[in-house]
């Protein structure tokens, strides 16, 4: 609790650690992500280590596909991580077990320090690009899910996890979905696209049928999920503006514009870590062109039956916004105050450690709105722990 407000963090993270691969089947164990120290690294800044992912080094600081993500130097003492100041969090020191969740008690202590009552945890954004091999990806995702179930089981009322879903193969997706439900996931993690396919692609239809039947909420999380954008990103800044940001609009078009929210009336979705301002462009653009294209498209059934405004205000569309966002009152007006979420991004060092306090201090939103943003909306979306 913080200043009298209960805090339900809708988007926190665990950083990659080899313990996550403990449950890999024998045939995939040799292809697990491996920590790598880079020689001749004097000019690489903080990026002197990386993960060997299916033949690639990620993250990397130069060239196509550049982006930021956690490295072995942030989570492994043998590769440079300080045991008392792991990760890239800057507000106060964190032990390695806190950022990797190998020590749930350390995580709870950090949450107490920040006034966070409940935290929903997500994987590193590197999971969007672990492998294009459907079998290896599914094995890695399921090993991660089992790790999270074990670790969150130490304090299930406060530590919650979203299961990452492999979607490249129908049968593997259904197996992973059934397992994460059995293990107690509170949500499903997907990214803005499934490689070069949008979520509305007919080849993914049976997977989405099963997702909807599960009644688990779906979280679309920021990541470099659409490979054609990689070639445009030659810096971390490019990745933040293009490769990691624009997939939000791909998922929005699929879920809202292609009628998935109408096809699955019990489906609830949240967009996490993309910020909030993009929603105005997407809603305005879709509103404008749906009205025009209903009369000129050869097949107008490809358009949503309801208005975009009705769909995003349906109570099933949630958005995590930045605490300092000057547009927050307008986001509340567009979506309603029951669909905006608070997130810390903890333990990443992106300046969100004071986000809850910033929301509490804002004079342009009411106390009841703050209560809903900081706790009630997440409790409705993810369920009470």
List keywords for this structure.
385 residues; alpha/beta; TIM Barrel; three-stranded antiparallel beta sheet; globular
Describe it.
This protein is an alpha/beta fold and 385 residues long. The protein has one domain: Alpha-Beta Barrel (TIM Barrel). Helix content is 37%, strand content 12%. The chain has 15 helices and 11 strands. The strands form 2 sheets. An 8-stranded parallel sheet has the order 1-5-6-7-8-9-10-11. Strands 2-3-4 form a 3-stranded antiparallel sheet, with no helix packed on it. Helix 5 runs parallel beside helix 6 (170-183). The model has no long low-confidence stretch (mean pLDDT 94).
- Count of domain modules: 1
**First and last CA, distance:** 15 Å
Beta-strand content bin:
5-15%
Rg over CA atoms, rounded to whole Å, is 20 Å
Spatial shape: globular
- CATH class wording: Alpha Beta
Low-confidence stretches: none
How much helicity do the residues have?
25-40%
CATH architecture: Alpha-Beta Barrel
Q: Report mean pLDDT, rounded to a whole number.
A: 94
CATH topology: TIM Barrel
Helical run tally: 15
Strand order of the largest sheet: 1-5-6-7-8-9-10-11
CATH superfamily: Metal-dependent hydrolases
Following the backbone from N to C, one meets helices and strands in this order, namely: EHEEEHHHEHEHEHEHHHEHHEHEHH
